[in-house]
Amino acid sequence: MTNRWKSIGLAAMLAGLTLSASYAEAAGVLTIGRREDSTTFDPIKTAQNIDNWVFSNVYDVLIRVDKTGTKLEPGLAESWTASDDGLTYTLKIRDTKFSDGSPLTAEDAAYSLLRIRDDPASLWSDSYKVIDTAVATDAHTLTIKLKNPSAPFLSTLALPNASVISKKGMESLGPDAYAEKPIASGAFVIDEWRRGDRVILKKNPNFWEADRVKLDGVEWISVPDDNTRMLNVQAGELDAAIFVPFSRVEELKKDTNLHVDIDASTREDHLLINHAHGALGKKEVRQALDLAIDKKAIVDTITFGQGTVANSYIPKGALYYYADNLQRPYDPAKAKEMLAAAGASDLTLNYLVRAGDEVDEQTAVLVQQQLQKAGITANLQKVDPSQQWDMLVAGDYDVSVNYWTNDILDPDQKTTFVLGHDSNNNYLTNYKNEAVKELVAKARLELDPKKREAMYVDLQKMAKDDVNWVDLYYSPYINVSRKNIENFYQNPLGRFFLEDTVKN
Predict the structure, then answer these.
(1) For 170, phi and psi rounded to 5 degrees?
(2) ∠ CA(148), CA(426), CA(313), 5° rounding?
(3) Closest alpha carbon to 499 in 30, 13, 108
(4) Which of 185, 146, 145, 180 is nearest to 165 (CA)?
(5) Weakest mean pLDDT among 25-29, 116-120, 337-341, 379-383
(6) pLDDT in tens, 462-502
(7) Where does 156-290 show beta strands of DSSP type E?
(8) Taking burial as the number of CB atoms within 10 A of a residue's CB, which of 161, 181, 391, 452 is the most buried?
(9) Which residues contact 450 (CB under 8 A, 6 or more apart)?
(10) Contact 230, 245 (CB under 8 A)
(11) ∠ at Cα 106 (102, 107), nearest 5°?
């Protein structure tokens, strides 16, 4: 047990004991329990929902995704036009301010886009390299010229990581200080960030939709243990909690003081595979892993039927999802034969597990048992969630279950991130296929919807053949809130519309 784990565990325990005494009864302040603490408030330096879901209400984007998660709507850009050749976009920026009272201008918007494109620390640069220039032609007019037409471009402007930040603030404070306590462009401003405990937000009076915001503040409180988090809500020590374990849904529905929210999502759970580790670099070995895992049993046993078996990295119902994509049957005997033929008999894997995450722990035990039938030994290594992410980034794992929710409407973003570039080792897997990478780039440029769809069908087939990871299941968002909380809602892309949440 590391000192880091001891401190986080102690913080979580103390939080669970003292919530009601200190914060939960504050008028107009919504308290939300979640597993992990935030890692940064610099939007270009993270790809984690634990960050994006919080700073989507701290920052605003030029163009938003609506509540249904199906269409774009104005954000900081109140309107936009595109040239006939698809190379020039002109956006009209609202007359509004940052949380420090300074004007939010087209120059800030241009700076934010060029930073996500050019900064060496950006995890999202590939999606914005299509931008040739981004300039403020006046205080409220942003003109963007592309190197070539791009089908997903408007959708990428809605990515939370492309949020508008203060150019003056970033240049004067520096990225480290800005990431600790940023100058906000969204509904709330960070009042305090207590590492390992909570992020305290207060209403931003300078937000352009400030009249829409009913809450005085929001506190995102880290309670790593699922059971403790649910008990906190039941006891009234939290107003709401996210990541409700599947096993608790029916029980919580019976509590007359609670409301269980089951919202449509773009979530896909998968087994990450580190292709850089020995035999896992062989496609046949990864295919054997896919055959050795019974996804239907996971859906039935772990999700209590709330999930559906996944057959593609593109979630069911999303743009260009290929329903007829290959779904390998559960066949441990064939998996064992394939491993032997690949010289990987008696394969032993380091399986990283998020401690305190009930679903992840249960899945790990079930998958471990399934792999054993194919002669694969999976040694489970339980670590706290924040440590797990660091280890995944460092490549210090063989396999680990993770999940992804779409951040934009277009499939380009996820496809680029997990299949099509190298800056993040293709989402932690070290997957490499030059033909796939080329097709990802080509699909981004194709403007004919039918031709583009055909490309994404091919990409889904190629990813499945290569087993970039093992697709497990799709599932809804499941959150819980007290009965006095209204409009606690997540759209399919995961954004919480806390501008509309009410605490009675």
Answers:
(1) -65, -40
(2) 90
(3) 30
(4) 185
(5) 25-29
(6) 999 999 999 999 999 999 999 999 999 999 999 999 999 99
(7) 188-194, 198-203, 217-222, 240-241, 258-273
(8) 161
(9) none
(10) yes
(11) 75
d(CA 412, CA 119): 21
At residue 262, what is the residue type?
I
Cα–Cα distance, 396 to 266 (Å, whole number): 27
Give the tens place of pLDDT for each residue, 316-362.
989 999 999 999 999 999 999 999 999 999 999 999 999 989 999 99
Mean pLDDT of 170-186: 96
Q: String of b and e for 73-99 (b: at least 16 CB within 10 Å)? A: eebbbeebebeeeebebebbbbebbbb
Q: Tens digit of pLDDT for each residue in 222-272?
A: 999 999 999 999 999 999 999 999 999 999 999 999 999 999 999 999 999
What single letter denotes the amino acid at residue 155? S
Residues 6+ apart with CB under 8 A from 380: 351, 353, 364, 365, 368
How many Å apart are CA 112 and CA 125, to the nearest integer?
Answer: 12
- Beta partners for 192? 200
Residue 52 identity: N
Q: How far apart are CA 473 and CA 308, in angstroms?
A: 5
Cβ atoms of 162 and 156 within 8 Å: the answer is yes
The C-alpha atoms of residue 467 and residue 399 are separated, in whole angstroms, by 13
* DSSP state string for 92-113: EEPSEE-TTSPEE-HHHHHHHH
Long-range own/partner contacts, residues 132-138 (CB < 8 A, 24 or more apart): 134/109, 134/110, 135/110, 136/105, 136/106, 136/107, 136/109, 136/110, 137/106, 138/106
User: CA 297 → CA 54, 91, 402, distances in Å?
Assistant: 33, 49, 18
Say if residues 59 and 163 touch (Cβ distance below 8 Å): yes
Q: Tell me the whole-structure pTM to 2 decimals.
A: 0.86
Residue-wise pLDDT for 122-177, tens only, equals 988 888 999 999 999 999 999 999 999 999 999 999 999 999 999 999 999 999 99
